[in-house]
Specification:
This protein is an alpha+beta fold. It contains eleven helices and nine strands. Helices cover 51% and strands 15% of the residues.
């Protein structure tokens, strides 16, 4: 499917920003294990990347899901972590816009769109990953506050967030998914968190640098009761499920971006690197690798755009989003591995970006719903 003139303009503007602002620093910061500079995050906020798909009534741009996918792809091609910063705000703001009270929308959405409020998702627990309803973190109401006890893990960007979008059990006496709620938990920014009530430690990872993921422990941490999403307890599981389509479209787009960057790097290298008196791109085995990579990337891109367009029509697209996410995730792992192979020994060196794309790509089959979960969602629908 072709893109409209408006969509092409969005893509080209983000591509220029990524090339000028992100690419020059990505490899150096990744090699150091350093976080994305806050001035860069502020520039992204000023350009409207965090509020892309939200209503102008709350400071958003009112653009479509396809626009969001294009932005995510271009930013991720420069550095996956930068393309993933916007995911934090999009997940939380989507939950608030769809499920929040009028007061919550007015209080949180403008800040989430402008970047004045940075958010992180605290959904996963040590024993509850794919089983989203299997959480154990408790939130007990005490007057005008909820008191939280429990553990969360893989909470990316938690240190820089002002708000933790947190799944909790508010009624453990009922069937597990019916007793789940979502709290918008405020916190101070910084690595120190607020021990002992709220403590956190970074989890070392092989890739996806630039944003640290944290293990968090709540031990009597208080959250205002007015921050219960939607104002009614027990709706959290259904609220969370409503965001998965948009999250998986965005994740598929990020995978396409990383794979495209790896392909471009490998193609350039194949033209420059000579062996046996010829550029290696003259050899059929390399040319066919590149041809297969390009085909796989375009197939994933079209699946992603199709799911985005379905989302924009208001149709249910859990299958299409799941297909796009699963296919793009596996494609990205294959393409980045082949790119590293084309680089040969240099691909294994941190002096070249091939290894960064490869390390980053491996996370796609795990986060935002594993590939196994995607296939289960798809299978259930096609067997109905």
């Amino acid at each position: 499917m072709t893109l409209s003139a408006d969509h092409l303009a969005i893509r080209d503007s983000v591509r220029a920003f990524a090339k000028n602002e992100v690419e020059p620093i990505a490899s150096e910061l990744d090699n150091k294990g350093a976080e994305i500079p806050m001035p860069l995050i502020k520039k992204m906020a000023e350009l409207g990347y965090f509020g892309l798909i939200f209503s102008p009534d709350y400071g958003g741009s009112g653009l479509d899901t396809l626009s969001m996918a294009l932005v995510a792809e271009e930013l991720s091609a420069a550095w996956l972590s930068v393309g993933s910063v916007m995911t934090r705000m999009i997940i939380t703001a989507s939950l608030v816009e769809k499920n929040g009270t009028d007061e919550q929308k007015k209080r949180f959405l403008p800040g989430l769109c402008s970047g004045e409020i940075l958010a992180a998702a605290a959904f996963t627990e040590p024993d509850a990953g794919s089983d989203a309803a299997g959480i154990k973190t408790r939130a007990v109401k005490n007057g005008d506050h909820y008191v939280l006890h429990g553990e969360k893990t893989w909470c990316t960007f938690a240190n820089r967030a002002h708000l933790l979008c947190t799944t909790v059990k508010t009624d453990p006496s009922v069937e597990k998914h019916k007793g789940m709620s979502i709290l918008l938990v405020p916190k101070r920014v910084g690595d120190e968190f607020n021990p002992p009530a709220l403590s956190g430690g970074a989890i070392p990872t092989i890739g996806y640098k630039g944003m640290n993921s944290y293990a968090l422990a709540f031990d009597g941490y208080e959250c205002p009761a007015e921050n219960l999403l939607g104002g009614v307890p027990g709706r959290g599981f259904y609220q969370l499920m409503s965001t998965y389509e948009i999250a998986r479209v965005q994740t598929a787009a990020r995978a396409v971006g990383v794979a495209q960057a790896a392909f471009e790097a490998a193609r350039r290298y194949a033209k420059e690197r000579t062996q046996f008196g010829h550029p290696i791109g003259d050899f059929q085995v390399i040319r066919h690798k590149l041809a297969h990579m390009a085909t796989q990337i375009e197939a994933a891109r079209q699946l992603t755009h199709h799911a985005a367009r379905m989302k924009d029509t208001g149709k249910r697209c859990d299958v299409e989003a799941g297909m796009a996410k699963a296919f793009a995730a596996e494609m990205a792992e294959e393409v980045t591995s082949e790119a590293l192979q084309i680089f040969g020994g240099y691909g294994y060196s941190r002096e070249f970006p091939a290894q960064r794309y490869w390390r980053d790509a491996r996370v796609f089959r795990i986060f935002e719903g594993t590939s196994e979960i995607q296939y289960e969602v798809i299978a259930k629908r096609i067997m109905e």
